Predict the 3D structure of the following.
Amino acid sequence: MDPNTGAGSDGDGTPVGRRLVLGMLGLGAGAMAAAPWLQGKLETALGAVADKDPTGVTGLLPNGGGFRYYSVTSSVPHKDADSYRLTVSGLVDKPGAYRLADLRALPQTRLVRDVQCVTGWRVPETPFEGVRLSALLDAAGVRRGAKAVRFTCFDGAYSESLTLEQARRPDVLVTLKLRDKPLGHSHGGPVRLYVAPMYFYKSAKWLSGITVTDEVRPGYWEERGYDVDAWVGRSNGRDDDPTA
Amino acid sequence: MTPPPERTTTPAPRAGERDGGSRVLRFSPAERWIHRTTALLLGACVVSAACLYLPALAELVGRRALVVTVHEWTGILTPLPALLGLVSRAFRADLTRLNRFGPHDRRWLRAALRRDHRPQERPAGKFNAGQKLYAGYIAGAVLVMAGTGLLMWFTGLAPLVWRTSATFVHDWLALAIGIVLLGHIGKALADPEARRGMRTGRVERAWAAREHSLWRTDEDARERRER
């Protein structure tokens, strides 16, 4: 020890560094154990703050609430009332294409449900409005032998699927409005699918094609390991509260 | 404010010292490569994380499957350079220096908490107490991120409640790491000589005497042995 500085030579002394590393590991394990409780507390607290936060910063924090933007392609073209088309094809009597105005002219259904993403985030009581998918299927005339519906998107890559029985549910919409406003591009506008009882990856954004098929063809994420029958709380190894 | 007292005089260049006298060896080539590759991996990991997480960037970049792959692999490989670096004796010696805290480190930390910048209140060996704390923190944090990341990556590894908890820890610790990393980069940007040390391996002797007054360089040690 140097009597003038009170310093030991470099490399002697208490092994604080090692304790710090082990402490971080312990803290991580402890936070894992406390996470279910902590997460609930934080969600409540952040939710309260977010209600009064004009900057929107709380929305960026973990568990801060709100939608997240996920796209599987590098860029997605923009479609408007002129350029947008929704085709209906496959095992149907009357294949055809809808313009945005055609869809708007059909009877609209409004649903208010929670949105649950398979990665964990949930957006409570969100109003969706649009045309029931079953109405479009009935108008096209589904042929005998049809078993499923495949959805394709104008981002050029995404796809989804439902069994015919699932597709005919009254809480499956071809959505034109979110939160009572026309569906914006970042939310999958002008038209997206909304499958209320399933995880949100089933609700394909930028919907451009509905094809009736004789078997279920797994969609984009389903080829990458996600469940095809994506019921909220009963699939993908998750136990979230059901959304429908 | 009282003027800073006389510093200990910088030793004159000594005979037998290599590379032009006034610059001393701080980091060996192995150590610089460890730092460089770790920075590259962790940097790519952080950038890809931002592209997955921040809505504005996610919208700009898209390509989610690709970005996820980049994030997973750069993340899990981040500890690798340091592990491989354990074959370097200089690196192992520096890990020992980073690990051990002496009385002078307590003094340095107390001064830092008081925002006291006088050099004589900031005694430091090769690494000051702040650098030591940063090293321990980031090493532990990277390991926790790797562990929680693996639980999310390989969903079959553990029951669901673990995965939800891992996501929670991963997200919040990411925020904490981001803030501390910005501090690390800010400190480097503020001190060109420290950056030169990491880039070229050598630093000005005067800088070393000022910032790391208790550091006995390898050259000092060799000289002492030779005497």
User: Anything to note?
Assistant: Chain B touches chain A through 58 residues (CB under 8 Å). Residues 96 and 203 of chain B are 21 Å apart (CA to CA). Confidence is low (pLDDT under 50) at residues 5-19 of chain B.
